[in-house]
Design a protein that fits this description.
InterPro entries: HAD-like_hydrolase_sf (IPR050155), HAD-like_sf (IPR036412), HAD-SF_hydro_IA (IPR006439), HAD_sf (IPR023214), PGP-like_dom2 (IPR023198). Keywords: Hydrolase. This is Putative HAD-superfamily hydrolase, subfamily IA. One of its GO terms (molecular function) is phosphoglycolate phosphatase activity. By secondary structure, the protein is α/β, with parallel strands linked by helices. It has 2 domains: 4-24 and 92-225, 3-Layer(aba) Sandwich (Rossmann fold), CATH 3.40.50.1000; 25-88, Orthogonal Bundle (DNA polymerase, domain 1). Helix content is 49%, strand content 11%. The chain has 11 helices and 6 strands. A 6-stranded parallel sheet has the order 3-2-1-4-5-6, sandwiched between helices. α6 (119-129) links the parallel β2 and β3 (137-139). The relative contact order is 0.20.
């Protein structure tokens, strides 16, 4: 568990994108499933779902094997990207996502995004959310040396906005683990289909159903996490 005394007062929030602010988890699950089928592999969707949120470079081996990664990993990733791209234009925000971003900014926090997705997908999501004015910086999968659950994405996102004391908001166990490894407290959301018990076991200090619920309790959440810089 992260020592909250080392993370206060807070000046930065790092948010995951897919599943946290954008309702995209099940689009990812389906497109990965179909990409595996394209190369003759039937990987159960429940297994894929549990891996969503980790870096794409890790996912193929995580849901199949190192042998599959070595033989067709790049092919599967390319096929998934091709299947996902047309769906990405029809995604919507998770409940209250844009309002939460505005409120975090209004509280004086630096707002950063840490996504495992591509640069183009991050830009498209920011436009869809109408959130450009509230986001101070972001990093994508192409910017990280190592992907989630490694701490590198969180650390780079904090650096991107010149932050110091940050907390993380995400929907996957991989987000919580990345936050813990970086020494930052985390808040879990249920919008990715992962249960509260698993998010807490992975390190979440607080868990809320969705961004709207976090927004409703934002003052309490920030106080619980260590307060914000006045």
């Amino acid at each position: 568990m992260t020592d909250l005394s080392e993370c206060s007062p807070l000046d930065t929030v790092v948010l995951d994108l897919d599943g946290t602010l954008v309702d995209s988890v099940y689009a990812h699950v389906w497109t990965w499933h179909e990409a595996f089928r394209d190369v003759g592999l039937d990987v159960p969707t429940w297994r894929i779902h549990r891996a969503i949120g980790m870096g794409k470079d890790r996912l193929v081996a995580a849901v199949s094997s190192e042998a599959v990664e070595a033989s067709v990993g790049d092919d599967v990733r390319q096929r998934q990207a091709e299947r996902y791209e047309p769906l990405s234009h029809h995604l919507s925000a998770t409940p209250g996502a844009s309002d939460l971003l505005a409120a975090l900014k209004a509280h004086g926090l630096k707002v950063a995004l840490a996504s495992s997705g591509s640069r183009d997908s991050v830009v498209e999501s920011i436009v869809m959310l109408g959130a450009d004015e509230w986001i101070d910086g972001w990093i994508c999968g192409e910017d990280s040396v190592a992907s989630k659950p490694d701490p590198d994405p969180v650390l780079r996102a904090v650096q991107a906005v010149h932050g110091r004391c940050a907390f993380v908001v995400g929907d996957a166990t991989w987000d919580m683990e990345s936050a813990c490894e970086s020494g930052r407290p985390s808040v879990g959301l249920l919008t990715g289909g992962v249960g509260e018990a698993e998010l807490r076991a992975a390190g979440a200090v607080l868990v809320y159903p969705d961004p709207t619920a976090l927004l409703t309790s934002l003052d309490h959440a920030l106080e619980s996490l260590g307060g914000v810089i006045d």
